[in-house]
Amino acid sequence: MIKKFSFGKVFRTESVPVSLEAQSGPMPFVAVDEQEMSFTYRMDPQVVVYGLGENVRGINKRGWIYESKCSDEPRHLEDRRSLYAAHNFLVVDGKETFGLFIDYPGILTFDVGYTDINVLKITASDWNLDVYVIDGDSPRDVIRQFRRLIGRSYIAPLWAFGNGQSRWGYINAEDVREVVRRHREGGIPLDMVYLDIDYMERFKDFTVNTERYPDFAGFVKEMKEQHIRIIPIIDAAVKEEKGYPVYDEGIEKGYFCTDESGKPFVGAVWPGRSLFTDMLNKEARDWFGNQYKFLLDQGIEGFWNDMNEPSIFYAEDRLADVLEEIAEMRNGDGNLDLDAFSHFTNLVGSLSANADDYKKFYHCVDGERIRHDKVHNLYGYNMTRAAGEAFERLVPDKRILMFSRASCVGMHRYGGIWQGDNKSYWAHLLMNLKMTASLNMCGFIYTGADLGGFGSDTTEDLVMRWYALGVFLPLMRNHSEMGTRLQEVYRFTDIEGFKNIIGLRYRLLPYIYSEYMKAVLRDDLMFRPLAFDHPDDARCKTIEDQLYLGDELMIAPVYEQNAKGRYVYLPERMKMLRYSRDGVFSEKILEKGDHYVEVELSDVVFFLREGHAIPLASGGQCVDEVDFDKLTILTFGDDAVYEYYHDDGVSRNYEDPANWRALSACKE
Ligand code: GLC
């Protein structure tokens, strides 16, 4: 059961697409303090808190403080309170089980037992918000109700479940051709190559550098003939440059955010001085969405939206002040002692993502001016919504791949997300797994992290172990930062090992896609913690490095350097499946309990639950080559039946009953 409570003058975020009558009377479960602008709940020691989507730390969020404040935050360290998203939904699971969704566009703090381990306290920056309280039988039940409330999650095209290769630093068409050639020659399956900002003309959205891509449409077609989709990046900020049509038209029509005096607000991102489209203004949003047509018309079928927190490297006014102050510091003898030097570094550090700068520009919504910081968390959502709504207008019969960096609840209807600028750290492999479960709870099903790690130099074993997790995740993409060690799989020594792991993805595709679609169509989780299925098994409550995938599989990746395997806890009897480098599955039945499982670097080990079966294709070099009808079945139990969903993968015809089939066990 869901109850809505409203406080103050609520800004319509449209995170919830349906309208519920607000209740009067006391709010169940939590204490409300209007003065303090907070909600408090006393947690018994056994309480576990799930949710909060994209954040650092565990699946159980208890013991840390989180802030919903979309931030360009490349250091995904444990002391971070926010990353790129604002996912204001959590589930309290103890003697009482309930969910809370704070529908609020500004900055929120979730103190989940940080100040006091027994207290959950949510504090808003002002008192204008809707709160949904969801009472349910179990965390999964609460989550399903929440997901039904917020509307169906974005559905990606089938080809977007293939393997993708990306790097900030593929400069021109030749670089991309080389990536494709090396994959194809090496027999490494590939479906997508991503274009980072280097494809644009001086980092201007909706332009292509014609020296680097003399015939872009021809190039996109050439790639498509090789079953490769080209996926360009789109950044939130628009370069300030007279004669650049997007800038000129945006200025003329008044579509950019303005400063207090009504002039366009200028902040810098990749192109230097830039403007920010007023994504909250419907007319401006439609206009920005229409710009994607420039690339759709050249055969592009997918995009990634970036820097849309929005990221601001510096605001024009502040830069002028800082430069002036620094110049003054150099007057006199120019000597920077300890205090002066730390003042200098603070000054420079204060330029990027300065909280005050987010108070210096305005949106115009239904004729009303709204200061950005009051609605900060809606920006990335509405940029991706601009694109999603435009795709529905421009290409109604086709699914377009779309994922974003910044997000909040509501955006899940228009795109997926990638988990941002992680690093080539073993800890970030594990974080990828944990975050996936939390994101599913908040409606983000098409997700993945940069395989191999984005920042810092990676190592072959890390990339390989990461792929062994990546083969199960909807968004499977290797991406890295310019200047770091090259990490396409063909750069390493054991290419056969990589080929084997990525090859498994193409054998598992019927299952992965079917499970993804089930989670979306049924408002359910594709990945979930073990405790959801074993509420009475105390061990499961603390296990965060294993997840269920659908009702059939358990995954338990190896995430430590030099590990020869790992301990796995089985809450029930399962069949262990090992996919080894010769492309052969071996199986072993393991009883409930703890097991040490050896896992060679090039092996993928996963677990099939008793009474269940999964379909398996024979694989392929690209999704087009995979036969989704000619399947074999891996089973644990003779009468196991798999409920198989498959559709054409492109249209929006999801509701056709013919998409569902029962597959029963037969010998491979
Ligand atoms: C941001 C993105 C990253 C991209 C880079 C350059 O850091 O998160 O994925 O490579 O910008 O565009």
What does this structure look like?
Among the domains are: 2-150, glycosyl hydrolase (family 31) (Immunoglobulin-like, Sandwich); 318-349; 512-664, Immunoglobulin-like. Helix content is 24%, strand content 25%. α5 packs across α9 (379-394). The model has no long low-confidence stretch (mean pLDDT 97). β32 and β33 form a beta hairpin. It has 13 helices and 39 strands. The longest helix is centred in the last third of the chain and has 27 residues, at 495-521. It has 668 residues and is of the alpha+beta class. It has a nine-stranded parallel beta sheet with strand order 25-24-22-18-14-13-12-27-26. The structure holds alpha-D-glucopyranose. Alpha-D-glucopyranose binds at residues 168, 196-197, 233, 306, 405, 420-421, 479.
